[in-house]
From TrEMBL:
Official protein name in the record: ABC-type polar-amino-acid transporter
The protein's Enzyme Commission number: 7.4.2.1
Membrane topology: Peripheral membrane protein
Gene3D superfamilies: P-loop containing nucleotide triphosphate hydrolases
Segments forming domain ABC transporter: 21-255
Catalytic activity, as annotated: a polar amino acid(out) + ATP + H2O = a polar amino acid(in) + ADP + phosphate + H(+)
UniProt similarity note: Belongs to the ABC transporter superfamily.
Phylogenetic classification of the source organism: Bacteria, Bacillati, Actinomycetota, Actinomycetes, Kitasatosporales
Subcellular location: Cell membrane
C-alpha cells in the first residue's frame, strides 16, 4: 500500500441524473459463470469511482463491458446518454471516448514513446500529424516523461511506461478513463509516480473508474468506493464510510485481508 497524501476532489455526491456512464441491470455470463449480476452503477461526470473486491469478482469484466471489449447479455449501458454501439465506426468512436489503462502497459513495442501517443490522434481523431505531435509532447511532459519521447517502450521503466499509457489515453480526449489495476505490475518504488499522475487527473476533473488495491489512493482520490464480490456490487459508499464502517461480512473480510498483510 502506498501513502500518497493528496487532497480529495471537491464535491462528493453528484446526482444520478448527471450520469456520464450508466449501467442498468447489466448481466453477463461466461458459459455457466454468471460473472456480472444485476449491476446498477451510475458514474457522474467528474466522479472518481474506485472498484475493489476479491480476485475473480468481475471487476475487469465490468471495465471491459464499459468500452465493449465484452458484450453483455441483458441490461443497458449508456455513455453520455447514448447506448453503447456494437460495431463499426460508432464503436471505434466509443472506444476513443472511453480510455483504458491496463495492468500491462500495452504500448506498441516497435513505436517510439512519441509515436505511441500520436498514433490514435491521427488514425481515430483525424488530427494532422504536427498538431498531434505537439499535443503528445505536452501530455508526455504533463505525466513527467517528456524527455523520453524518442525512446522505445522497452527502454523505459514500468512506471514510465504506465505514464506513457496514461498520456496515450488522454491524447484521445476521452470522456472517461477506466484503469484496471494500473499499478499491480509495477515494482513498489514506481507505484507512487503513477498514482500521483492519477491523483492529478482526478483533481483536474477527469471522470475515472479505477480498479485498484491501493487503498491510499482510494481514500484520497475516490468520491465513491464500489465493492464487488461474486459478480455483484455488494456495497457502495464514500471511502470514509467504507473503510471505517464496512457493512457486509464480505467487505469486512476482504478489508481485514488487504489492510493487515
Ligand atoms: N473471457 C473469459 N472467458 C471465461 N471466463 C472468464 C473470462 N474472463 C474472465 N472470466 C472469469 O470471470 C470471472 C471474473 O473475472 P474478472 O472480471 O477478471 O475478475 P477480477 O478482475 O475481479 O479479478 C473469473 O472467474 C474469471 O475466471
Ligand atoms: Mg481483474
Amino acid at each position: 500500500m502506498s501513502g500518497v497524501s493528496m487532497s480529495k476532489v471537491d464535491g462528493d455526491a453528484v446526482p444520478a441524473a448527471e450520469g456520464l456512464v450508466v449501467l442498468s441491470d447489466v448481466n453477463k455470463h461466461f458459459g455457466a459463470l454468471h460473472v456480472l449480476q444485476d449491476i446498477d452503477l451510475t458514474i457522474a461526470r467528474g466522479e472518481v469511482v474506485v472498484v475493489i473486491g476479491p480476485s475473480g469478482s468481475g471487476k475487469s469484466t465490468l471495465c471491459r463491458t464499459i468500452n465493449r471489449l465484452e458484450s453483455i447479455d441483458s441490461g443497458s449501458i449508456t455513455i453520455d446518454g447514448k447506448p453503447l454501439p456494437s460495431e463499426g465506426k460508432e464503436l471505434a468512436r466509443l472506444r476513443s471516448d472511453v480510455g483504458m489503462v491496463f495492468q500491462s502497459f500495452n504500448l506498441f513495442a516497435h513505436k517510439t514513446v512519441l509515436e505511441n501517443v500520436v498514433l490514435g490522434q491521427v488514425k481515430v481523431r483525424k488530427k494532422d500529424k504536427d498538431e498531434a505531435e505537439q499535443r503528445a509532447r505536452e501530455l508526455l511532459d504533463r505525466v513527467g516523461v517528456g524527455s523520453q519521447c524518442d525512446k522505445y517502450p522497452a527502454q523505459l521503466s514500468g512506471g514510465q511506461q504506465q505514464r506513457v499509457a496514461i498520456a496515450r489515453a488522454l491524447a484521445m480526449e476521452p470522456k472517461v478513463i477506466l484503469f484496471d489495476e494500473p499499478t499491480s505490475a509495477l515494482d513498489p518504488e514506481m507505484i507512487n509516480e503513477v498514482l500521483e499522475v492519477m491523483q492529478q487527473l482526478a483533481r483536474d476533473g477527469m471522470t475515472m473508474v479505477v480498479v485498484t488495491h491501493e487503498m491510499g489512493f482510494a481514500r484520497s482520490a475516490a468520491n465513491r468506493v464500489v465493492f464487488m464480490a461474486d459478480g455483484r456490487i455488494v456495497e457502495e459508499a464514500t471511502p470514509d464510510e467504507f473503510f471505517s464502517n464496512p457493512r457486509s461480512d464480505r467487505a469486512k473480510d476482504f478489508l481485514s485481508k488487504i489492510l493487515h498483510h
